[in-house]
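Sample 1 of the test manifest.
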Amino acid sequence: MTSTVENTVGRPLGRIEGPAKVTGEALYAAEYPVKDVTYAWVVQSPVPRGTLNAVVVDPLTEDDDVLAVLWHGNAPGLEDAGDPELAVLQSDRISYRGQAVALVVARTLEAARRAALEVRLDIAAEPHDALLRADHPELYTPEKVNPDFPAESRIGDVDAALAAAPVTVDVRYETPALHNNPMEPHATIAVWEGDDLLLYDSNQHGPGVAGTVAAAFGLTPDRVHVINEHVGGGFGSKGTARPNAVLAALAAKVVGRPVKLALPRQALFSMVGYRTPTMQHIRLGAERDGRLTAVSHEAVEQTSQLFEFAEQTTTITRHMYAAANRYTGHKLVRLDVPTPRWMRAPGEAPGMVGLECAMDELAERLGLDPIELRVRNEPDAEPESGVPFSSRHYVECLREGARRFGWAGREHRPRLRREGDWLIGTGVAGASYPTMAQPSTARVTLGADGTASVAIAASDIGTGARTILTQIAADELGLPASDIRMRIGDSTLPMASVAGGSSGSASWGWAVTEACRELRRTGRSEVTFDTSELIAQQEKDGKHAFGAHFAEVRVDTVTGEVRVSRMLGVFAAGRILNPRTARSQFLGGMTMGMGMALHEEGVLDSRTGDWVNHDLAEYHVPVHADIENIEAVWLEEHDADVNPMGSKGIGEIGIVGSPAAIVNAVWHATGVRVRDLPVRLDKLLPHL
Amino acid sequence: MKLAVNGVEHTLDIDPRTTLLDALREHLHLTGAKKGCDHGQCGACTVLLDGRRVNSCLVLAISQQDAEVTTIEGLSPHPLQEAFQEHDGFQCGYCTPGQICSAAGMLDEAAKGWPSAATPAGEEPTLSDAEIRERMSGNLCRCGAYANMVPAIAEVAGR
Amino acid sequence: MKTFEYTPATEIGEAVGALGPDAAFLAGGTNLVDLMKLGVATPDTLVDINRLPLRDVEELPGGGLRIGAGVRNSDLAAHPVVRRDFPVLSQALLAGASGQLRNMATTGGNLLQRTRCRYFMDMTKPCNKHEPGTGCPAREGDHRNLAILGASEHCVATHPSDMAVALAALDATVHVTGPVGDRTVLFGDLHRLPGDTPHIDTTLEHGELITGVDLPAPSRNSAYRKARDRASYAFAVGSVAAVLDTAEGRIENVRIAWGAVAHKPWRATRAEEALRGQAPTRENFLAAADAELAAAEPLRDNGFKLALLRNMTATVLEGLA
């Protein structure tokens, strides 16, 4: 096969599923037409800790349409699926407020919802502790933090270096709990066909959900078929099976009919994970020229009674800046709260707030341009592992951003620009995200008509995966993109890794690339390729994407309201496979970063253990009007060490550093350092 | 009850509690209107009711027997759909039908000269980017595709 | 949602007569349907008043305006006479909710919307508005956006409307019809402070229906300003509606109302008194706001509202002076 077809990788191909999405034809999990479907509604615990003695269904109010009220007293037993949160309706133990304690199944949605409100719970509540404190007596250092890093790292003597440093910064930053809130709430339709289970489920990893749900029901993974053709966002919260998948399957088994369970928005706050709040302590020591001598970054986080989720908040500090003396650490406390889980750039996003705001404070102390401070601390190799970077163009991102943003000539002292009632300032912060790939398998089949079919159980949660994989296959096979039939979103296709960790395109694209190459090499008409061995041989350290964020804000001196006039992200993230979808991913991450800086906060009432602002009217995410002038650009970078495409992940780096750039810009505008996010008017107004 | 959707009159046997959104999705299998919050807080369920954009999750179906409902399925084909694709005005696509129905309703409102909070006091509105953003703020997008939707809408508005 | 009977009404008398003890009027539904889904509102009958002839805006002799209770928020905001003669009202309407919600919500319904207190919106939590005597967890809990004025130990909720704040500043009157006939309520008498009966939001009797709102003579020199936690589509953290007329360097007429500070739209009468006859200076505006805020009793986390209202009041009035 020699071809003159022009390469499509690197070109702004439109989303293949675009027509289906703009016409409403694309089907999401709860939308598949299923005959005789019934509806389920979750009853959640109103207490954070206790014992559920009984679930009482008042016969007088019971609706004819109600088919079952399931709870641990009558629900079928489940096997251990490796995730205690999936052992739904199995025990009388209540471990957090919002835990599913019963499930109503009814012929209609209205009847299920009504009955769920009417069900009475006989609960023996116990005293609880849902308040994260930096001095909590039960704080401990976990053995590892996610995904598999040591909880602590120590090089040299930080304390001695700080004591000797002519300039130091010693600050505490806090980030609140954040909720993923994909626009499509988690949903499942479960259909049993004998002992085989079909799940239409909204998730980021069909094969993973199939395996986990199979384990819960004591089935082999091939008996569970998961379809997730279109997924309405996930941002980490759909990375593994959530209770809705198991509950729907359980209920369908009991009532002998298909069951649809679409979680209400409010339930997402407690049932599908959230980003842990963090309390960070950052200490920096520097020479007068700005060269760091000591970097210490410690984080306090929470986890649940059910299991340990240890977010990697400070691991990003291990590779950002050079310094001879270093410490990073994490401390956890188990509280009576829902288990925190992954949310877009878990660890890096909150950790970078602490590090990059502290760097801004150091620049202030030194009277130095915050960009120059960063440039002076550029390491030659990973500062802690000593492994060379496969590629690192952080300084170039800062310089390119400075040029585009108009940074030159910036007066670095704060509160000097005023227009009417508005104070105006600019800020910068660095960005970084690890470059990863995970084993996946792709199958390529050549058709008699010269077209090709590519199959891989990947998930397109809005990333553009379907489109990018098509481009990769087209180029490898020398075919136009229109001759590739890409099949994803089905767990029965060859195994693919999760759409998470910014690793989807790298992992799946790698498998598609190798399968196509082997097909061309061997001349066979069908090849299935598994990348497990290749990835096992790869050096893991030293592989990161980098970037720089710039923000201009204006702060209203009358109200303290903050508006972001401009945001610019400059990234060096390997080869950009599709500039159209890549730009959108960067912008999306930056938009969520603005939410993190200014709007978002899960407010936990420690007395009730509940997220009190558990809906989209009270948990604020950015709206159209918040996004004024935002742009993302990138540098040419091709990193042959990371994967055959030379690409790095781009789904998360947009939210890493962008909140810090905004917080730093707010300081520059007002002279006020707000060290607990979000930066809202009440924190600024007293100082304006 | 009778419900006229996209020019077709349907006869439905439904609970008075059924919202217009649930009637569309669960009874008529018109799943273009999405359920994002079910409380009027996200805009994913936006449809046109007698030509005006509304949150169908807060409308009881039974109260709309005289109304004409237009969903994304009935709006197609619409230039906004092409423009959203051209400008990559979506990622996951879940808020998209609501955004497009909302934009269609919004363009009509603007054409009637309705002001918005972004209209300077005492002036007549023109569909600047700031006006589009303010008028579209009832439609959340968690993927953060706002920056691409605004030029798509501006293009259809003839700017 | 509890099951209910649905009754469309085509005549006002029929609507009022049909309202049983656990029945409710259904207008735009933007608040009622929301609360029914949460189990906070549990009517057994919904009397749909959307077909009642209450959809007109009429000009009154003397320059006033009669707004039918069924007029949608978006239509009212865009009405040319409202925009010209009562800019504070148009601005307040447009500052509220979203385009979709404004297309649905009505004048009457907007006035009767209930608090957004996060405990009130959740039936799994105690709340004296759900059931008197169960307690107010907001006092010690989450109350950043709750009341600083006129609250009681039983309730610190705020009224969430923007429109109602403008109507308070416009000296509107509210027309009501009910089982015992028609009456007119001064706007300031429509909403209540919580006292020891926080479950009662207004002075309307059960079965009474708002049919319209009258605005007196034009208030062309008026404005609304709202502070919130994001640029749009968010309830107020604090808001100011003001009307100002000056003559020969002195304030002749001033009316100020605040939103998101109390259980009702808060008419700042002390501030108005302090300003009457005074020079329209920032200093005087600030002093007037302080006079009103002297009675404030902020909670642990909402003391910032004092500075917010003080600044906003002075700035809005300065803009009108």
